[in-house]
Amino acid sequence: MLAAWGCSEEVVESAPASGFSVTDSAGVRTVVNRKPLWGSGEGWRLTSEPLLTLGAVDTPLVQQFHEIRGVTRLRDSTVVVLNSSSGELRAFDYTGRHMWTAGGPGDGPGEMRTQQDQRPLLQRHVGDTIEVDVGWERIRFGSGGELVDHRRLDFARLHRELGRYYVGSCPPEGRSYFEELIVICDVSEGPPQPGRRWETHHMTVIRIPWTLDRVDTVGTFFRNERWEATVPLRFSAGRPSLWPAPLGPRGRLWIGGRQHPRLLYARNDAYRIEIWDLQDATLSMVVERRTPRRARTEAEVFVAVWQGLFQLRKPDRSELSLTNGRQPVVDSLSIAESFFLYDQGFLWVRRLPVGDDQGRRWEVPAPPDFEESSGWVVWLPSGLHDVFRPDGVYLGTVKLPHDLDVMEIGPDYVLGVARDELGVEYVQLFGLERGGPPP
Predict the structure, then answer these.
(1) Which of 286, 215, 218, 213 is nearest to 255 (CA)?
(2) Burial code of 19-52, b = ≥16 C-beta within 10 A, e = fewer?
(3) Where does 284-405 have alpha helices with state H?
């Protein structure tokens, strides 16, 4: 596996003089970008310091968070935080003063179940209605924290009439409920075919109305290659299992949106993002950026193998038996790492970290048979984000804090969650200054 990686070469494409080109085929708009629209000195940037911070050290108890699953900003500048561990919504004004708390753990009206497999997610609707999705339940609150509606999906009927589907956010990205639309994923897997030691893993995205009177397939998307391995007896009775190939190609989904829900899909071996309209289940646009890809570093290879395939406890790794075969290896990676699309329609693409990005570094653990540090470090994660207009044209790059997990981007702000060296979570709100030519 490592030898195959070592023979790879970086893929480079030269950029023509034109900035972008657009084609339209059967209603699908394809935009190929070769250079940014912003010129030197132009672009968007964040304020040098956050406008608001919630949850720093020595803050009041109401500002101490654990397992934040969503943050949103209302029209009057109120910031609402979904604290998953307590099943609460907590609201603060623009100065950080606590305004109200709603929800709480339990099974009653407005209360949230906080099981491991039913972690709540937060979204905000037009008019500042706040929705919390928890497994089979959808809870809505008003802008002042008052309970508006608590609705439960008819789970028994779903299974009885539509078959056995996994209902929930398509893992690990996105959400399930958009007004009267339910988005689910079929993640069923089968054993390798006779004579083969691996299986191509796909995920089928399906939409169903709350009336449960029909099923519409949006599309089937490649996720990864899975290879046969035998894990220790205490995990699977010693039977072969399928594990993702750690250095192979991978597909990534993101599902979200407020008024207009969309699905984004891309692979790690190309800077090509598909944008699907979930309301009519059609592919609407493809956005590409022609930019050099790069080979994995030695540390990234080690981490991918160590985390991806050998995620068992150290004493168990020696018992893992991999089927001898040629596992797939991506020769070079796309610069795109993750992506999201918010209400203004701008596509944000987070870049892969690189050595000159000046990000935080993580010391890679030692191999299983070594007690001391490996001495390798990787960059975590990149703060550089490529920004595309709603029509798919590449504007340029915006630098966000490396440790900011972005929750929401508005017309003039960026809202996210960061963590200190002890893993303590806190909320940060930055101003977004838009310079350069009109987008």
Answers:
(1) 218
(2) ebeeeeeeeebbbbbbbbbbeeeebbebeeebeb
(3) 298-308, 314-317
Q: What span, in angstroms and rounded, lies between the C-alpha atoms of 134 and 138?
A: 6
Question: E strands along 153-192, which residues?
Answer: 177-178, 181-186
What is the residue-wise DSSP string for 201-216?
Answer: EEEEEEEEETT----E
Q: How far apart are CA 69 and CA 420, in angstroms?
A: 17
Cα separations in angstroms, 325 against 97, 269, 317: 59, 22, 19
Cα gap 364→348, rounded to integer Å:
28
Among 309, 294, 326, 173, smallest CA distance to 246 is for 309
Give the model's pLDDT for residue 8.
Answer: 38
Length of the chain: 439
Helix (H) or strand (E) holding 235: helix 233-236
Dihedral, CA atoms, 178, 181, 187, 193, nearest 10 degrees?
-140
Record the pTM: 0.86
Element (H, E) at 243: strand 240-244
Phi, psi (degrees; rounded to nearest 5) at 374: -75, -25
Question: Residue 401: is the preceding peptide bond cis (ω within 30°)?
Answer: no
HSE-up (13 A, CA, CB side) for residue 49 = 3
Between strands 262-267 and 177-178, the pairing is unpaired
**Distance (Å, whole) CA 254 – CA 58:** 35
Is the Cβ–Cβ distance between 150 and 137 less than 8 Å? yes
Angstrom distance (rounded) from CA 143 to CA 296: 47
Model pLDDT for residues 240-297, shown as the tens digit of each residue: 667 778 888 999 999 888 778 899 999 999 999 999 999 889 999 999 999 988 888 8
> What's residue 45's pLDDT?
93
CB 207 within 8 A of CB 183: yes
* DSSP strand pairing (336-341 vs 377-380): unpaired
- The DSSP code for 156 is H
**Sequence-ordered list of residues with C-beta below 8 angstroms from that of 438, at least 6 positions apart, any chain:** none
Q: Where are the beta strands (DSSP E) in 279-372?
A: 282-289, 321-322, 336-341, 347-351, 360-363
The pLDDT tens digits for 182-205 are: 888 876 655 556 656 677 888 889
Phi, psi dihedrals of residue 336, rounded to the nearest 5° = -80, 130
Q: Which residue shows structure tokens 């950080």?
A: 96
pLDDT digits (tens, 9 = 90+) for 34-64: 999 998 888 999 999 999 999 976 778 899 9
Beta strands 177-178 and 147-152 are unpaired
- Give the residue from 200, 162, 199 showing the smallest Cα distance to 182: 162
Structure tokens at 276: 């699907």
